[in-house]
Amino acid sequence: MSTLLYRVGKTAFRKPGYFIIGWVLILGIVISMISINGVHISSEMKIEGTESQKVLDQLAKELPAASGGQGSVVFKAPDSERLDTPERLTAIMKAVNEVYGLNDVLNPADYAAEASSSGASADMTQAAANMQQQSATASPPPYGPLMVDGVPVPGVLLSSDGKIALFQFQFTIEQSAITQDVFDSVIDSVMTAQQGTNITVLPGETLKTVAIGVGSAEIIGLIIAVIVLLITLGSVVAAGLPLVTALLGVAIGVGGAFSISKFIEMPSVTSVLALMVGLAVGIDYALFIVNRQRRMIIDQRLSAQEATARAIGTSGSAVFFAGLTVIIALCGMLVIGLTFLSTMALVAAATVLINVFVALTLLPALLGLVGERICSPKAREKSTKHPKAAGRGIAHRWVKFVIKYRWITIIAIVVLLGAAATPITKMEMGIPGASSANLDTTARQSYDAISEGFGEGYNGPLILVAEPNNSSDQVTPELLGNLMKELQSQNNVAQVTPLGMTEDLAIFSLIPETGPNDKITKDLVTELRSAESSVAKMNDVKIGVTGLTAVNIDMSSKLAQVFPIYVGIIILLSLIILLLVFRSIIVPIKATIGFLLSILATFGITTAVFQWGWLHSLFGFDTGGPLLSFMPIIVTGILYGLAMDYQVFLVSSMRESYVHGHRGTESVVHGYNQVSRVVVAAAVIMVSVFAGFIFTDDVMIKQIGFTLAVGILIDAFIIRMGLVPAIMAIFGDKAWSLPKWLDRILPNLDVEGEKLIATLNAEDHSNSKS
Fold it and tell me: Which DSSP symbol is given to 105?
């Protein structure tokens, strides 16, 4: 491997034009494809094979009108005033009619006419009338239909105090197929109610726009990365190269994903995830190679060409296997079987792969253009005057301290991370939504207004589908009425409304009394789905439940089932790679244990911050809420891959020192001194890039960015800089031992460049003789 990469590096340095033009052409192709196909993104995350998705698929087939996406808008009167004044009622009625007149929005009048022709409308009306008569003695709800000239406005409810109106409507197509133009048309229509009435119009979260963009916080993260590169590499030219290569790799990776988004459904979070990971690894990989090249020029007095080729042959090998570990960790998500997660994983993995190839081919070509200018005369002179300065630095003193107090260090780290991990026992998973959005957002204000006027359950209506257990039975008005009666009598049910019926199905909208993320609501969903529930047994039907809460429950359950399998697969494959790279059994096991400590502590801290609300004002949010259901899998995959990056770079340096004659703790100290500075710099860069996403408006991106930043911080500075040298010092030379039978069958990948250096030294010796 080292010999092959050495040749690649030397060729790229000598003939940079071919490599640079090649990558520019690839970028040009990506840009051309985007201009032809456009960019298509979606906020929909389907959970294939789950109960909620099966119900949606069934509705789409049997009663398409009931399977469309849902929208809601709140109309709120000024303080101490009411909505039911003539001018405000007229404005609301006009806005509602405009929405019903839009394409892709279901007009109740049209649907009623269509259903009437089949007799379904009369059946539902009769069943609803029976239900109202049976429940006449019950206390009335704190709301009613909005009335204009004695006629109810379809889809609009008015709170009992007359201050808040809720307009709920349905699209004729699934949520994922609704275009931004349709959302914009709806919002423009309802906003007309504000004109001259002082009504506040609050579009619900389901009408929230799907946006992609890089904000000021992300740019600040890049600026910090540039500063760290300048400090580490000491020159503008050297610092600029990792940034250029990383940006090109991300542009091709993320741009390539956008270029095919017309043909493959692309969740909006996919591009941001690829951007996060691509920037971080792209900068880091180039940093390791450039730092190694400069060190060879300064310390070994090599030419820029030879130093570049050797840096690609040695550090390039570490980059290749580090990148491979990240890719394996990401691709492990494919076993979960969820399309949106698989898409995110593949796009991020492809971006990492592109950055690896860019670092191994384009970077040496750019170094060929720069030539000897990569190291300033000042840097060379400083090295000549102070050749042993590196051995007296902070890194040297720190590693000596850790080795001296190795057992105390290990115990302290385990106790510290164990304490940080304790909140994980209270972690709640779900989809962060309007209930935890910032107070100044329209989505949160709409959520709070609905809760105030109608109850929290109206923020998460459930869709129920009932079908007879006996396929020969049909849905009748009597069955529809009985089901409504039974459903309404269940605990935690505020309202049940029939949405439609066929010969085989009865469809209802059920409003819980509690909110979408409330445990009692989740218990209600579980109870309704049970074949042993009173509703199912008394009416001999099977009930399916969908809706936001049901989707959240299914997502959490599905991910909980596959998470252990996923972790087992990536750990097994990564252990094999680390075994091949380090030719050691102890090192891979130690690396995995260290990662498990860091990931548990990371999730514990994330729970305390985003669920309990600790330091919420510092991180730009107002209310705690559930953690993103699929975040643990995404973060575990990415952090495992990135943690192994630092493991490969740090421990391969210790292995290289051992191979070249250093023994015992001396190899640990020497290897640590060689790369600790650049590992710290790489970690600071990664943390800066990820932290930039903490201050975005999207709470999902905020949580992922925070968790990745904290995870890298813990893994790089506590595990790799503290725990690793302490454990390596305990085992000493035994850390590199390998059973003879295993040593014979394992291929020697020569990651440290031992064979390469021996070949080059032999060539130098032969040339000196001649």
Answer: B
Ramachandran angles phi, psi of 439, nearest 5° = -65, -25
Query: Dihedrals φ, ψ of 767, to 5°?
Result: -65, -35
Q: Higher pLDDT residue, 413 or 231?
A: 413
Amino acid symbol at 195: Q
The residues facing 158 across adjacent strands are 144, 165
pLDDT-derived band at 723, boundaries 50, 70, 90: very high
Q: Is residue 69's pLDDT more than 80?
A: no
Residue 569 vs residues 411, 564, 577: alpha-carbon distances, Å: 29, 9, 13
Q: Is residue 45 packed enough to be buried (19+ CB in 10 Å), middle (13-18) or exposed (0-12)?
A: buried
What does the alpha-carbon distance between residue 701 and residue 656 come to, in Å, rounded to a whole number? 39
Cα-based distances in Å from 358 to 22, 352, 404, 576: 11, 10, 41, 25
Length of the chain: 770
- Tens-digit pLDDT profile for residues 292-339: 888 888 888 888 899 999 889 888 888 888 888 888 888 888 877 778
Contact residues for 306 (Cβ-Cβ < 8 A; gap 6+): 10, 296
- Euclidean distance between CA atoms 767 and 300, whole angstroms: 18
Distance separating alpha carbons of residues 757 and 309, to the nearest angstrom:
12
156 strand-pairing partners: 167
Handedness of CA 601, 603, 608, 614 (dihedral sign): positive
Q: How far apart are CA 650 and CA 647, in angstroms?
A: 5
Residue 62: what residue type? E
Q: What is the CA radius of gyration of the chain?
A: 31
Type of residue found at 102: L
Integer Cα distance of 651 and 675 in angstroms:
9
pLDDT at 342 over 70: yes
CB within 8 Å of 314: residues ≥ 6 apart: 2, 292, 656, 751, 752, 753, 756
> CA 549, CA 554: separation in Å to the nearest integer?
9
The H or E element spanning position 90 is helix 86-100
pLDDT tens profile 411-440: 999 999 999 999 999 888 877 777 878 888
Q: For 9-18, what is the mean pLDDT?
A: 92
Q: Is 89 in contact with 158 (CB distance < 8 Å)? A: no
Query: Binning pLDDT at 50, 70 and 90, where does residue 135 land?
Result: very low
How many Å apart are CA 108 and CA 153, to the nearest integer?
A: 10
Q: Which of 449, 494, 423 is nearest to 161 (CA)?
A: 449
Three-state DSSP class for residue 156: strand
Distance from CA of residue 660 to its chain's centroid?
42
DSSP 410: H
Strand ranges (DSSP E) for 160-295? 164-170, 200-203
Per the CB < 8 A criterion, the answer to whether 308 and 9 are in contact is yes
Q: Return the structure tokens found at 194.
A: 């504000």
Decide: helix, strand or coil at residue 148.
Answer: strand
d(CA 204, CA 190): 11
User: What is the rounded CA–CA span in Å between residue 73 and residue 703?
Assistant: 27
3-state secondary structure of 468: strand
**What distance in Å separates the CA atoms of residue 61 and residue 45, rounded to the nearest whole number?**
20
